[in-house]
Amino acid sequence: RSYLDRIECINPALNAYITIVPEKSLAQAAAADARIAAGQATPLTGIPLAQKDIFCAKGWLTTCGSKMLGNFVSPYDATVIERLNAAGVVTLGKTNMDEFAMGASNETSYYGVTRNPWDTDRSPGGSSGGSAAAVAALLAAAATGTDTGGSIRQPAALCNLSGIKPTYGTVSRYGMIAYASSLDQGGPIAHTAEDCAMLLNAMAGFDERDSTSLDRPAEDYTRDLDKPLAGLKIGLPKEFYGEGCDAEVMARVEAAVAEYQKLGMTTVEVSLPNLKLAVPTYYVIASAEASTNLSRYDGVRYGYRAPKYADLNDMYAKSRSQGFGIEVKRRILIGTYVLSHGYYDAYYLQAQRVRRLIAADFAEAFKHCDVIMGPTYPTPAFRLGEKIGNPVQMYLSDIYTVAVNLAGLPGMSIPCGFSGQTSPLPVGLQLIGDYFSEARLLNIAHRYQ
Ligand code: GLN
Questions:
Q1: Where does the Amidase domain lie (predicted)?
Q2: ipTM above 0.95, yes or no
């Protein structure tokens, strides 16, 4: 109830939540109380969470930030929601996001922008910006997010939070509305690495309803939190430390690396020679997959349907024209183009080849180090309106995060200080590990915190 009161008071200034149903939250809270009284609690029982509106939750409006799903009340739970519910969490509401998770600023949402609690003229990052803003403003203890090309790590960085995108296949995508299926991964956004580890324990695990889910033994992600770091090697990719990053952001990242050296870690320069191709490769592949995934929104079975149309084709055309926003349409056009006959080999197939090269670059780097460190985002939180008119500029800012998704690796962002004198803005340090090294990333993050 105290969180709900705070939400009522503060959410109008931030627009972090787009759906709040207090009765539902209070019913879950009462059930959690009963469970605790019965001595059947898990570590997450009664913990109030914000859920990104990309996760289908039974009986909840689930919009994915789009007008297209503005009337969609999900008849089922996503696996992530089902698992968190089984652990006894309390859902406080559904959070705002870039439409269909396409964006990096939370400005493409049909439901209005979300504001960064550290400076309300600025973006919280995206696409899980509503989740990050809610946690940063203490409107939830923690939140769920999804990361296709940086959407957990970037908002965590810009809002002074910790967020982890696990190895592809670790968290089930069942009921998580698809953007780019070969890149999408769910994960937690929280204040600390310890909180992330506890949430990941509940969220991760094999799910036969997701054909790309990995069938591996369950892990306790909290198991290594306190391990000493001495002797571990930090890889510093030279491509991360060149031009293109704000000087104050770079200074905070370098100071964090120096702190890690005091904890006994050593550094080694590594190289990701194909990093310069990561953004174009990502936008070809992500848009291609988006264009096919979004073909299901046709106005027939569920979602938005145009009120007036002449025939079936006109109904499809009008429903999609009216239901999708400008960024989503841009991705559908790019994706349809790169998949079309005559361009498929030149763009889509070529991008798939470069994707292999990027994964191979990481594999080579991890022969020389245990973790890669660098910035999460090239600048601190930027002003709302500053980048939205220039999509290429917005896309280029994804340079430090998208390669991780292309390779399917785990990546995390943790707070590493503030830039700016008059108005302090958070800076994020990115930790990238080899496949299935989540426990180690969380350990490295935890020791710094
Ligand atoms: N900014 C990237 C995009 O717009 C990543 C978004 C995401 O991770 N969902 O595609």
A1: 1-442
A2: yes
Inter-residue contact 101 to 129 (CB < 8 Å): no
CA 307 to chain centre: 34
Q: Compute the distance between CA of residue 292 and CA of residue 346 in angstroms, rounded to an integer.
A: 19
- Could you write out the DSSP letters of every residue in 102-125? --SSS-S-TT-PPPBTTBTTB---
147 CA distance to ligand 1 middle (Å): 7
Measured by CA distance, the residue closest to atom 5 of ligand 1 is: 149
Q: Which of 75, 32, 55 is nearest to 144 (CA)?
A: 55
Q: Which residues are catalytic?
A: 52, 127, 151
Phi and psi torsions of 350, nearest 5°: -60, -40
Q: Are 80 and 55 in contact (CB under 8 A)?
A: yes
Q: Is 104 in the pocket of ligand 1 (CB under 6 A)?
A: yes
pLDDT of residue 69: 98
> From CA 231, how far away is CA 92, in angstroms rounded?
42
Give this prediction's pTM.
Answer: 0.98
* Closest atom of ligand 1 relative to the 103 alpha carbon: 4
321-373 pLDDT, tens digit per residue, is: 999 999 999 999 999 999 999 999 999 999 999 999 999 999 999 999 999 99
Which of 108, 123, 127 is the best mutation target for the ligand 1 pocket, counting ligand atoms within 8 Å of the beta carbon and taking the most? 127
Domains of the chain: 2-203 (3.90.1300.10)
Distance CA 41, CA 29 (A): 12
Report d(CA 405, CA 170) in Å as an integer: 13
With a 6 A CB cut-off, is 160 part of the ligand 1 pocket? no
Q: Which of 327, 336, 338, 363 is nearest to 104 (CA)?
A: 327
Determine how many CB atoms are found less than 10 A away from the CB of residue 413.
33
pLDDT of 421 > 70? The answer is no
For residue 342, how many C-alpha atoms fall within 13 Å in the half-sphere facing its CB?
A: 2
Q: Is the CB of 417 under 6 A from ligand 1?
A: no
For 213, the token pair is 């889910």
